[in-house]
């Protein structure tokens, strides 16, 4: 069951997801199960919100909304309602995770970029074998981001924060240049990325919508170019196995599914909400079953 209203007491912490539409979100299912598994006195609900500013003004009492997740179309507009915003989230210009501190102040994060970067770091550590080097495995790596939209920004800022050398490739070259300048990286038109391989063992992250259902026969970069990458991540999660990831595997690269970004961003939200580590196995099982 989604919520058990009879369990809501004056001291129950109320969390939720604000968005429009929001009813389809599986987050309440995941978070309520997670809270229950450790006996937390908390609920997580759907909040259908039209005007995000009005929402935060109306529910300004520190007794309401201990935290919320934030989805389409409020990720940018909600930023202006916060008391404090994580500095990378501010640069990206989008938030998806809001926590109310005990003093009532609202502090916001972007767990999308943390989720993607953590999933990629896990993939790289697995490649390093039993004795991974200390620090981020992204440090010093050449990191090619395809796309310069919201997800492209998240990956480019996240990777550059970890010390990667970022290259942004985009169909509209102007957008690639703009983002590359912001993260101190290089830019390429998307069509030139297949001939770009100054070194071996690069990391590739696709954030374009090329290959997304129903265009499953498409891929943003030809197979022959994939040989130069040690790991390929695709932010697309429908389908799970994109043509890009299938061909990357055939070319010998490690692959990281888009779903891993979703899962890891959920772990991060749970940690921010509760201060506790996420029940990762439970999250994974529920995601497999429902998402
Ligand atoms: P998101 O928030 O998911 O990143 P977005 O902001 O709409 O979504 O960005 C979509 C990205 O996919 C952009 O980088 C876009 O390239 P343009 O900046 O040139 O529009 C890219 N994209 C979408 N369709 C594409 C296509 N058919 N070929 C190449 N790139 C495409």
SSE map:
Blueprint: E1 13-19, H1 27-37, E2 42-48, H2 52-58, E3 67-70, E4 84-85, H3 87-92, E5 97-100, E6 106-109, H4 111-128, E7 142-146, H5 150-161, E8 165-170, H6 173-183, E9 186-189, E10 202-206, E11 229-234, H7 243-250, E12 254-256, H8 258-274, H9 280-290
Helix pairs in contact: 1-9, 4-5, 4-8, 5-6
Bound molecules: 2'-monophosphoadenosine-5'-diphosphate.
Word description of this protein:
The protein is α/β, with parallel strands linked by helices. The chain has two domains: 5-109 and 261-290, 3-Layer(aba) Sandwich (Rossmann fold), CATH 3.40.50.10860; 113-256, Rossmann fold (3-Layer(aba) Sandwich), CATH 3.40.50. Helix content is 35%, strand content 20%. The protein has a six-stranded mixed sheet. The longest helix has 18 residues, at 111-128. The chain is globular and about 60 Å long. Bound molecules: 2'-monophosphoadenosine-5'-diphosphate. 2'-monophosphoadenosine-5'-diphosphate is lined by residues 147-152, 170-172, 175, 190, 207-210.
Give a brief outline of the structure.
The protein is an alpha/beta fold and 291 residues long. It folds into two domains: 5-109 and 261-290, 3-Layer(aba) Sandwich (Rossmann fold), CATH 3.40.50; 113-256, 3-Layer(aba) Sandwich (Rossmann fold).
């Amino acid at each position: 069951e989604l919520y058990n209203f009879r369990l809501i007491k004056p001291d129950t912490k109320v969390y939720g997801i604000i968005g429009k539409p929001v009813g389809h979100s599986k987050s309440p299912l995941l978070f309520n199960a997670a809270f229950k598994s450790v006996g937390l006195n908390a609920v997580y609900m759907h909040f259908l919100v039209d005007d995000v500013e009005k929402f935060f003004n109306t529910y300004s009492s520190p007794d309401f909304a201990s935290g919320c997740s934030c989805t389409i179309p409020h990720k940018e507009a909600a930023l202006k309602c916060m008391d404090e915003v994580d500095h990378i989230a501010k640069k990206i210009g989008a938030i998806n995770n809001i926590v109310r501190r005990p003093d009532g102040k609202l502090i916001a994060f972007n767990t999308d970029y943390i989720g993607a970067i953590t999933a990629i770091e896990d993939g790289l550590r697995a490649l390093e074998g039993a004795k991974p080097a200390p620090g981020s495995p992204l440090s010093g790596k050449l990191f090619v981001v395809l796309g310069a939209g919201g997800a492209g920004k998240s990956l480019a800022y996240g990777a550059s924060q970890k010390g990667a050398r970022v290259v942004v490739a985009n169909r509209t070259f102007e957008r690639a240049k703009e983002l590359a300048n912001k993260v101190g990286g290089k830019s390429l038109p998307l069509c030139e990325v297949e001939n770009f391989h100054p070194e071996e063992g690069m990391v590739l992250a696709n954030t374009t919508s090329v290959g997304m259902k129903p265009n499953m026969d498409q891929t943003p970069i030809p197979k022959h170019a994939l040989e130069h990458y040690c790991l390929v991540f695709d932010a697309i999660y429908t389908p799970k196995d994109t043509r890009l990831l299938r061909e990357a595997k055939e070319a010998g690269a490690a692959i990281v599914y888009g779903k891993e970004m979703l899962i890891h961003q959920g772990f991060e939200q749970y940690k921010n909400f509760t201060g506790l580590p996420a029940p990762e196995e439970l999250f994974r099982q529920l995601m497999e079953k429902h998402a």
